[in-house]
Amino acid sequence: MRPFLNLAYLACCGWITWIGLWWPGRAKGFVPGPAEGEPFYCNQLMSTGGEDDLMVALFLVFALPLAVRAIAMLFAGPGRAELALWGLATSLAGFGLFLASLDCAAVFYTAFTLPAPGLAAALIALPLSGVLLWALRRFTNDRRLR
C-alpha cells in the first residue's frame, strides 16, 4: 500500500508542477466567464488580465514537496516538516489562483466548462495530494521522524 501511495502522491505533485511550467506559455489562457460565441481570453486585454496566466506558475512550488517525497520515500513516512511544506505549497498555489480570479480569470469555469483538462486535473490533484499525504502518514509504520 505504501509504494502505491508514494507513487500516486508523486504523480499528483508532478502533474501540478508540470502545469505550472506548461500553462503560462502554451495554454490559451483563462476566460472571464460564460460568453456567447467564441470565448474571450483574459490575456487579450491590454491593461489587465494578461498576467493571470503567470499566477498558475506558482504551481511550480510543488516541485519542493515532490523532491522531498522522492528522497524520503526510501527512508521514512512523511513527517511534520513535509506536511508543513505541502501546506505552504498548497497555500501559495491557492493564493495564485485567488489573485488570478481577482483580476479577470474565472478559474473553475475555465478548467471544467471551457474545458482546460490539464488545469482541471491539476485542480483535482491539489486536494488529492493532501489526501494521499495524509494516508501515507496514517498508514506508515515508521514513526521515528515525527
- Give the termini distance in whole angstroms: 20 Å
Give the ordered list of helices and strands: HHHHHH
Oligomer: single chain
Look at the helices and sheets and give the structural class.
mainly alpha
Average pLDDT figure = 89
Largest sheet: none
Strand content: under 5%
Give the strand tally. Answer: 0
Question: What is the number of helical segments per DSSP (H or I, 4+ residues)?
Answer: 6
Low-confidence stretches: none
What shape does the CA trace take?
A: elongated
* Fraction of residues in helix: 55-70%
Radius of gyration: 17 Å
Question: Could you explain the architecture of this structure?
Answer:
- 64% of the residues lie in helices and 0% in strands.
- It has 146 residues and is mostly helical.
Question: Would you spell out the secondary-structure blueprint of this structure?
Answer:
Elements (H helix, E strand, L loop, with lengths): L1 H25 L25 H4 L7 H10 L7 H24 L3 H7 L3 H23 L7
Overview in brief:
This protein is mostly helical and 146 residues long. It has helices at 2-26, 52-55, 63-72, 80-103, 107-113, 117-139.
